[in-house]
Each structure stands twice: as C-alpha cells, then as structure tokens.
Specification:
This protein is of the alpha+beta class. It is 47% helix and 19% strand. It has helices spanning 17-75, 90-97, 116-128, 160-163, 232-307, 313-340, 355-365, 367-372, 391-409, 464-474, and strands at residues 8-9, 101-107, 132-133, 142-147, 153-159, 179-184, 187-192, 202-209, 218-225, 351-354, 378-381, 386-389, 419-426, 429-436, 478-483, 489-496. The termini are close together. It binds adenosine-5'-diphosphate.
C-alpha cells in the first residue's frame, strides 16, 4: 500500500513555546478582565450606596416641607386676628430656622395671592387635599409649594441648593465623579455636577422619586467609568505574576525535557557501545586470524625442520619461538576483547516498528544539535510507515545517519543547511532517506564508506556507518549511500515492511 506522499514540516518541540505564550496571554487577559470586572462591580456597588443615601437625605428634607405647611395651617391666627402677620409670627421666623425656605406667603379671603400661579396651585391643593407645586422653573434654583387651608392658605418658596444637607452628604461635591440631579416634568436642577466622563466606558444610573407625594422630584444619579478608571496597576501585577509563573513552569518543563533527553541519549549511548563492541569483535576476529595463521605456519615449518635428518634444531627452535610469540599476541587480542565486552549483546528482537515515530524520536533527541547548527529538519513523505525491525537498532541507525548529516552540514554556511528526512514505501520495502545539503561524498570515499574504522573526520572512529550497515542487514534490510542530485549526500535505509503494510 502506497501512502500518498504528503509534505509537512516536522513538529519541533521548541516551537511549542508559542503555545505557551498564547496560553499565558489568554490566562493573563482573562484574569485581567476578571479584575477589571470586579473593580467595576465594586465601583457600581459604591455608586448605588451613595445614590441611595442621597435619595434618603433629599427625601428627608423635602418631606419636612409638608410638615411645615401643615403646622402653619394649624397654627394660623383666628379669623379675627389682623390679616398681616406680626414680626414674631411663625412664618416670619421660618426662614431663619430653615435656610432653604426663602419666604413664606399667606393668602386669605382679604389677601389674594400676588401671583395667579399660586392661586392655581392653591386650587390644586384644595382638590387633592395635600400641598401642591406651583408651576416649576427648576433652572431658577427654587420652587414654590402651596397648601390650601382655611381661613388662610400658605406658600413656601424653597431654595434647591440650600435644600441639600451637605454636612451629611456621602460624597465630596466638587471632586466626585457622580452627577446628581433633581428632575421633574422635563426640567432638571443639578445638585452635584460630577466630573463628567465622556466617551466609552461603563455608565451607572440611579433613578428614584423622593418620598414626598407633594414634591415628586426624581433623584437621578449617574456615573461613567472610563478606561482611565480601570485598575491598571492591579491588572499589571496580575499579568506579571502570570508571566513569572509561566516562565517558571516552562523553565521546569525544559529542565525535565533536557533530563529525559539526556537519559535517552545515555541509553542510546549504551546501546551504541554494545553495538560498537560487536563491531570490535568483528575487528578482533580479523586481528586473531593473522596471528593464528602465523602460529600454524610456524609450527608446520618446525615440524618439517625436526623431521629433517639431521634435524635443524636451531631453525626449528626459532620457528617455535615465533609461533609462541604469535600465540601470545592472539591471547592478548582475546584478553582485550574479554575486557571490552562487559555485557553480551541482547540480540535483536524484530517486530513491527513505527518508522515515523523512530524518526521523530531521533529528531527529538538531536533537537539541541539541530538548534546549535541552525538546522530545521523537514520530515516528508508518508505519515505512517510500519517496518519489521529491532526498535533499538532502528533508533541507533536513524540517530547515526542524522548525526552524520548534521556533522556534514557544519561544512556549509548556515543559510545553505537543509536536512530532509523522507519516509515512503518502495518496491515493497519501507524506505527512509536522509538527505543533506552538505559537501557530499567524494568519489574515492564512496566505496569505503561502510568499512570499519574508515573516517575522514578528525577524531572520527569510522565505526558509525559500518555499524549501521551491519544493523540494517541484521534486520533484513540494507543501507546505501550516494550523492544527491542537488549536491549533498543521501543515505537510504530500506527495511522489510511490517505484515500489515506489506
Ligand atoms: P565517523 O563519523 O566517525 O567518521 P562514520 O562511519 O559515521 O564514522 O562515517 C564515515 C565517514 O563517512 C565520515 O568520516 C565521512 O567522511 C563520511 N560521511 C558520513 N556521513 C556523511 C555525510 N552525510 N556527508 C558526507 N560524508 C559523510
């Protein structure tokens, strides 16, 4: 089954920091919004408390006017008394007792009202049985209230500004952001201007008619909370706290990832050592072959010399000494091998292995190496490929191929560094190609690439590729190398497909 090739960028774990930034921004903004909302709610609660106090204070003041008029009507002199009140009469004394009462007027059968509006209010009062407002002019800052009584009716002229009990007022009238007005019949009187905030923002409103039926003024309080009144300092502290916390968590996570990566590399290193020892064993066999052949040749020669008549003892002794020396060398080789091999090779367990995951794992482990060389590997081809392999050996091969490519890329300028890993199925086999944009492989090097101990790198062991080839063929696959058409090297690892894939 050939999966349709699909090109996509390798998901690089270090790129995930953008998700951290995004997540952090969302948390920080959500928290800041909650703080702003809470502050707004607090301001609203404060506003409503103040507005209710204002309403209660104004109601208390206004309701007194009904009581004053009723008292005047009750205490008025008998009809026989002189029509014009004396100096000490209650209505004369009222303005000094209540500064908001500017004047008290009185009308009876002999003293008509000086203003027909008062006569009209008296008529209304007589109709309703309670005090009535004379036609209003709130702009003038005063209003008149008339109570019809017998024999005389009374009218109060009240100063609106003096009506306000500033001593008990819950706000600082000059600086408060709250605007307070008294409204009635489309007219209004500003009690407290409030620092008016124009533009966008939240607007609080309070409407309630004062608790006096004769003077049904609507107490209107408003406040606009603009951007400037937002709790910026608290919001900034919160955002800073979130950023610090996220940075700390991110740091811890990075540390954990680095530790895990180091453990993985250690594990791979141990496997590499084991596999390298396997290679070493092959080398040793080669080394043993030579002294053993020499031992055989020398002992055979000695045998022949001893058979001669007379036997050539001196030469035979020399040949035996040679043989003994060669045998000692062989023993040394074996001893060296025994010392080197501490653990027997576990032997590969072939099973279905997700090749894409193996490549991802290797890229993850080599992420710091890639970053250090400014290489952004691209993973291309099929997104699902299952091969028969020893998972540890496969990891080892992929790791080696990528590391070699990264080392080759060091020889070209960073801007030209490309590393592409392609996974696909070819001729019924799973194939991984590792293509780099490095200098490529020289023609004289190409045939020797998989030889043990062949290296062109300074300090190179020359065992990596020979080990990879051994591992690949051990898994029933093959590893080959070539120069890419675009210039760099391309290493091709082919492995049998897992049964389901095949
Ligand atoms: P080492 O890396 O220790 O030299 P290897 O067996 O891994 O041993 O590689 C053997 C040689 O193959 C390297 O020295 C290098 O010359 C060559 N080689 C391996 N990979 C590449 C590559 N991607 N591009 C060019 N040459 C390479």
């Amino acid at each position: 089954m050939k999966a349709r090739a699909r090109i996509r960028r390798m998901r690089q774990p270090w790129r995930f920091s953008w998700w951290w930034v995004l997540g952090g921004a969302v948390i920080a903004l959500a928290g800041a919004a909650a703080i702003a909302r809470q502050s707004l709610e607090q301001q609203r609660a404060l506003f409503e408390t103040d507005a209710r106090i204002v309403h209660r204070l104004l109601s208390q003041q206004v309701v007194q006017h009904d009581a004053i008029l009723a008292t005047l009507a009750l205490l008025q002199p008998a009809p026989a008394a002189p029509a014009s009140p004396g100096k000490g009469s209650p209505e004369q004394r009222l303005p000094s007792l209540y500064p908001r009462i500017l004047s008290v007027q009185r009308s009876d059968a002999t003293t008509p009202w000086p203003d027909p509006a008062l006569a009209e209010a008296e008529r209304l009062s007589r109709q309703s049985g309670r005090a009535a407002l004379a036609p209003l002019d709130l702009q003038s800052g005063r209003y008149r209230l008339v109570l019809a009584a017998s024999p005389a009716s009374y009218a109060l002229t009240i100063d609106l500004q003096a009506l306000v009990p500033w001593a008990e007022w819950p706000m600082a009238a000059e600086t408060s952001a709250v605007r307070v007005e008294l409204e009635h019949a489309g007219q209004h009187h500003v009690v407290q201007p409030g620092r008016l905030r124009t533009g966008t923002g939240s607007r609080f409103e309070f409407h309630k008619v004062v608790a006096a039926e004769s003077q049904p003024f609507d107490v209107v309080a408003t406040q606009t909370v603009g951007w400037r009144q937002w709790p910026w300092a608290r919001m900034a502290v919160w955002m800073l706290a979130v950023a610090t916390l996220l940075a700390a968590v991110r740091h811890l996570q990075r540390q954990r990832i680095a530790r895990r990566r180091a453990e993985e590399l250690l594990r791979l290193g141990q496997v590499a050592r084991l596999n390298t020892l396997g290679e070493l064993a092959a080398g040793m066999a080669h080394e043993l072959n030579q002294p053993l052949t020499a031992v055989l040749a020398n002992t055979q020669a000695a045998q022949r010399l001893l058979d001669d008549d007379p036997p050539e003892l001196a030469t035979a002794r020399g040949a035996m000494a040679q043989a003994a020396a060669q045998a000692r060398r062989a023993a040394e080789v074996v001893g060296r091998l025994r010392r080197a091999v501490e653990r027997p090779d576990s032997g590969g367990q072939h099973q279905a292995v997700d090749a894409v995951e193996a490549v991802r794992r290797a890229l993850y482990l080599l992420e710091p190496e890639c970053q250090r060389r400014s290489v952004l590997p691209a993973l291309e081809g099929t997104s699902a490929l299952s091969v028969m392999a020893d998972p540890v050996a496969l990891d080892q091969v992929v790791h080696n191929l990528i590391l070699n490519a990264l080392q080759a890329l060091e020889q070209v300028p960073p801007a030209q560094r490309r590393l592409t890993l392609t996974l696909r199925t070819v001729d019924g086999l799973g194939e991984l190609t590792v293509t780099d944009s490095g200098p490529g492989i020289a023609p004289e090097v190409l045939p020797r690439l998989f030889e043990p101990f062949f290296s062109t790198r300074e300090g190179g062991l020359g065992l990596g590729l020979s080990l990879c080839e051994t591992l690949a063929s051990g898994m029933g696959g093959a590893l080959s190398a070539a120069n890419a058409a675009s210039g760099g090297a391309v290493f091709r690892l082919r492995l049998p497909l897992a049964r389901a894939e095949a």
